[in-house]
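Q: Could you fold this chain for me?
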Amino acid sequence: MSNTDPLLGHVLDGRYEILRKLARGGMATVYLATDRRLTRTVAVKVMHDNLGSDQDFSSRFDREARAAARLSHPNVVSVFDQGMDAGRPYMVMEYVEGSTLRHLITREAPLEPQRVLDLIIPVTAAVAAAHEAGIIHRDLKPENVLISTRGQIKVADFGLARAVTAHTATAQGMLIGTVSYIAPELVTHGHADTRCDVYALGILLFEMLTGKKPHTGDTPIQVAYSHVHNEITPPSASAPAQWRDTRSAVPPYLDALVMAAAARQPADRPADAKVLLDHLRQAREAIERGVMDDPLLTARMRETSLDAATQLTVQVPAVAGHLDEVQRTATLRFTPSTPMSPSHPGAADGMPYYDSLPLPSPAAVPLQQRQARKRRRGAVSLVLLLLVTAVLGVGAWYFLAGRFTTTPDFDNLTRDKATKLAAEHGLLLDFQQEYSETVPVNQVTRTNPTAGDRVLRGGTVVAYLSKGQERYAVPFLSGKTPEAAEAALIEAHLTRGKDKEVYSENIEVGFVVNGTIKAGEMVKPGTAVGLNISNGPPPVKITSVVGKTFDEAKAYFEDLKLHVVRAPEDVFSTKVPAGSVASQDPKKGTLERGGTITLTVSKGPEMITVPNVRLLTVDQATEKLKKAGFEVKVVDSNGFFNRVAYSDPGEGQQAPKGSTVTIYVS
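A: Sure. Below is the predicted structure, expressed as structure tokens.
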């Protein structure tokens, strides 16, 4: 057993022995444990230390855990116990051996519609039970849906998200909930109700049907922005191409169900999981019957509340069987069981009469009367058959086709032209607005239902008018902190891109110099704007000042914000005049502002005395002068003595060390 986790082998509250780690998340770690008291295997979720230190969170956690423990449903992971151990809140739950829905989606998605519904209905049933009990999950995601080895589906973490959200919302200003499944209203104002769970289930349905998430981005902020501003596309548009026109295709009524559940506006979604569950069951029943398109069912999927009339699914009996039943009823109703004699009271009124007299035998009834009765019964049956057939036919036609008309093509029409076209078709228009990259302002971008789809006669078509291209101005960011700049970008419907450190003479270190896109430029929503962060002034490039006077060199470097130091000793130089810079340290490269540069000043050349070389041979004189530090030039007059007559400069005079002394030989 590894000792890296201090809880392994530990016994919580003297009862729950921690065996091994199962999973770790952002808020808690889940362990496999043994309940020593009841001798059973359980799962224990232990919150991280930073959450347990807050007293308000601990009390909230206790309250929510108790509420979750009251949930009793076959598709909800049972909560057995909760408590505190060494300042860490923990929750004891049913252990479900198996995997999660995330593993299934990763391995097999996209899934066929019927399988998706078989998986999601138990999940929705669990959430519906929680909603009935006044509990909102707030963090529905594939990782919280457990699938046991026996195929049983259970939802975990009811009640936990609320306690964590209440703590972090006040302590850290965070949003709790996987950002891929978070409802738009939680992003904008943090308010949660049952429709937040419905939204998460809608996103989950889309992911299972298509194998991908509808809202994506490079950062969590971009994903959250997409939830707030973008509607999802129909799952059928992203389903595998080989499924189209087959029984595996996503039918229109399932498209409508998913888009209603994942609608941006809460009012457009089913009111709670109970309503969504009813829609899901109706969709599964239709798929099991092989129904691929049903306009009535598609319209029903967009309803946000339960209607008793639509909940009851009554199957119309087969025509033949139905007619047989009607015929039997008619025969019993209109055929008298006892024929009346002409003298019986009431016979003149044509009314049937029933009494307790014994029935005459068929032989006692004249043949012509029996045949007449048969003909009458046959005629009545035929009339009823025709009547029922006509009623059923007209009713079926009306409900399936007669009460519908086809939605005209309103695309790219102006408001006035669209209104006129709708009136010609006996329809009403509900105008809404949206941005469009391609359609000019105040022209129709799309309709719901779309052109060619069926719509109720006299019904309403939602027409979306273009507001033009959605563009936002890049805000002025210079001088702001990175956090303030990011907030300004989000407020402008933009996102923060990559940061880059740059030099700046004017902006303090750590503050924004500018954005990678010029302030005021109009860009698409969600555009990533990078931040150039000041790293202070640029370093000073060192140039040579050798040969300049010390004062000139000092003034030059001090203007560049460098500290100038004069070397403690000046040096002799045959090349640099006295008082000028003979050397510098550093000689080249760069220095940060405030760095130090050292200047060494020239004393000019070193002066030495010319020695006496008169009457010496050329070799002797040359050696003596070089030893003294001079260079030698010989002027030979080819004289008789071959000795040095004199030198220039002459003996005893001062000359720069290294300079040339000319000797004249005679």
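A (continued): Confidence is low (pLDDT under 50) at residues 163-177, 312-367.
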